[in-house]
Write a structure and sequence with these properties.
- The structure is a homotetramer of 258-residue chains.
- Chain A is of the alpha/beta class and 258 residues long.
- Chain A is built from 8 helices and 11 strands.
- In chain A, the strands form 2 sheets. An 8-stranded parallel beta barrel of chain A has the order 1-2-3-4-5-6-9-10, surrounded by 5 helices.
- In chain A, helix 1 packs parallel to helix 8 and helix 7 runs parallel beside helix 8.
- The longest helix of chain A is centred in the N-terminal third of the chain and has 18 residues.
- Chains A and B meet through helix 7 and helix 8 of A and helix 7 and helix 8 of B.
């Protein structure tokens, strides 16, 4: 009987101390609970709402810290890429290349990611349904790569809210690939007048439980020791000290599902 | 530890044979699985898309068959009402008065239902969120009745689809009342050019599992021995012979949640 | 070449002074601009979000004041009804029976309104598209009444916003009936945590201009000398002193369209 | 008093014959009607739903044909770009760089386009509202370029439909830039199971008229002598022989608005 896997970490590489602290804590919890763990941090944020928001420490430094963290804990790692030319660079440092939701239709990017031979995790666009992700899968397969993950991260629901449609879990599983629920970005509240995306972190458990119940193979959760001071997506990250309790419930739920 | 309860039956009172057959089968399954069961059938359909669709056998005959079924199996019963004057009539026959989603804002109807002293089950309008159901709860309470259930049945998502937003489960539970997931109508595909609402019955399990995982207290499932010939909502009813297998999974899931 | 017609007045019959003041002012403007005018005020508000909001002066007093206003200015009048039993009562006082959007699928109500022989103005539900309003039209026609108006009033767009889809204007005109744009309720911001629906009255001109340009036959505009103190829908009513300037622009636009 | 401007052409550079035929016809109509005209054709389609759809003749050949067409008719030209590295290349050939809606949040792309010194036309994402486009404007301005256009192209409305929210016209005009309505892509029907986006070309006039009435400064219309055989977006392009009649009506409307 298989457990779900977890993609987790801070939203962005803020500093070596932060990524090591988060990875250390999550690594320990996952080991204890038998959850395969992929360390995640973005080395660059290319699509912040506002141009004055933090975008990262610099590409190579950021990627290097992600890789270093993975090596230290013997963990696979992932980060997101935003253009075709980033693919080979990032592939030297991480095991899973993540395609952002806004970019899931960019053929060049999907093909470049595919051609690295790494696992490609495509987030479903906020404007797409699960069946349409078939075309993203096919673009990657056609480029010779069968290692594909699809991630649900909520759908546009009016301007200032997203809704998670759980029909997308079985619909995307029909494409023959593992399906992940992004519990963090699914709770975003976009288009806020402040230029800072809002959130509802108290609902992370609701989003995650429904995902496990409906058959998700993995969960994506951004976590931070103190989300209030995080440099990106603070409004939705799970407080690191709440992660263990949540994962315990989810493991129990998973056993009832499989 | 408490199990969830089930509101189930055929969509509409088609005939005595039908309601008895369905009630008998569901009664047996629920007894076996320890699920409290409320028998449901509409005695009249007042809001069919098209004026030429079947609307029922006649009010008194329909209500009488619902009550007879309840008495026969010693089951509580429920049916929906559509105007204030129907409330006292229906209250003589059923234990739970159900308020249709389109009508959940009609103060007169809520008050009339409340004043019967029966349990009032208000379906959340396709245009409302869970927090707004507070006002429906308050209208009923102010009329002197605290026996309230709230039911999620999907939200308008473009014209021809509904989406179930599971945040509504915890949001509605905050009003201090039991919350039910209507697994049948949540899968409707409205505004079809045929004038007959479509559906996705193969997703009933997905809708139900996510509901149990996120804390729903009850499930609403319309079921029919042969949905293809049903006189209303055939596109979404669960085939009666699939009910037991689904409920077994859900009971297992429920135990992992509580 | 025909001008558009106007359905206008205060949202609800607050007092004789108010309805007379509004009718007098609008009557004068419409006469000057050659706009056929139907006086509108609700005699009862049956679906307020919150049970503690103002619902009217009482049915007969409210209806009587609507009728009195119409007689005084030789104007046709309209008010909305909420259940089948109200239809014959209201029909004694007004010329156009308006069916609220939430109730546009209630067959009994449509038939009762139809049977009065009055003009029936059905507001399109926030959950319906224009083509589906065919079924409302057919229910009324089948009850022997061909005097039908359809009104667009916005569509559910996330929980706290509505969007006006102008495709509904030509789509509803295909049903062979006059189509009205409700410029007031289309700007509602529902599901506010306060229990009071919000609005965007500065956009009334935008909503109205697009409606005239796309072929709407009539406009519905609630107006009040001082929306800030209005007892219902204050957040969206047009300040009475702004009406003339807006209508002048719209008449100019109309001439360019026909 | 100023007329609106028109951005028009075939969706994609299919052949020299096609772009010349379309440009010639549209050039003649616009000259006659006093409409400033910008010739548009995509030299590459980077985000087709399906990987097997036509993507263009090759970058340099495509760009060269766009530029050649512009020179021949003394017309400004535009094409869309999909990554930062394309910006300086495309800027050698066209006058307006268009940013696709899915990419309107990609800071690198906006900055690269801005730095060419060309006019940058940003399409509003299907997941954004007009006020949020302020951040796109600011990113371009901060990169030293004030020549900005914003384009409305519809908003996600369920999975298989888009809706045009005309509030975005005044909302985007508040950013101090010209606002264009894309009458073609606003009518897309995405997420079709065929992998080919559908459409509603008979509603192009409705979309355009409402845009002019609400103050749009420009219109974007893809047109083709025979949309049925077009290699991209055929479902929404206007038949070339219908363009003149439509533009005549719109010019008349424009005069009534300004």
């Amino acid at each position: 009987e298989k457990n779900f896997f977890l993609i987790a970490g801070p939203c962005v590489v803020e500093s070596e101390e932060l990524v090591m602290e988060v990875a250390d804590k999550v690594f320990g919890i996952c080991k204890k609970l038998g959850i395969p763990y992929i360390f995640k941090a973005s080395y660059r944020k290319a699509n912040r709402t506002s141009g004055s928001s933090f975008t990262g420490l610099g590409d190579e430094l950021g990627l290097d810290l992600v890789a270093k963290t993975g090596k230290h804990f013997h963990l696979p790692t992932t980060s997101d890429i935003h253009s075709a030319i980033e693919a080979p660079l990032a592939a030297e440092f991480v095991d899973v290349l993540q395609i952002p939701a806004f970019l899931c239709r960019q053929t060049d990017l999907l093909v470049a990611a595919a051609e690295t031979g790494k696992i490609v995790n495509v987030k479903k666009g906020q404007f797409l349904n699960g069946p349409s992700m078939k075309f993203a899968v096919e673009k990657i397969q056609k480029a010779g790569n069968d290692k594909i993950i699809l991630t649900e991260r909520g759908t546009t629901f009016g301007y200032q809210d997203l809704v998670v449609d759980y029909r997308n879990i079985p619909w995307m599983k029909e494409h023959g690939v593992p399906v992940v629920m992004d519990c963090t970005h699914s709770l975003q509240q976009p288009n806020q007048t402040s230029g800072v995306t809002g959130g509802n972190p108290q609902l992370i458990g609701t989003i995650a439980k429904a995902a496990i119940a409906t058959g998700a193979d993995g969960l994506f959760i951004e976590t931070h020791p103190n989300p209030a001071v995080a440099k990106s997506d603070g409004a939705n990250m799970l407080r690191l000290d709440l992660l263990e309790g949540l994962l315990e419930q989810l493991v129990k739920l998973r056993k009832a599902v499989i």
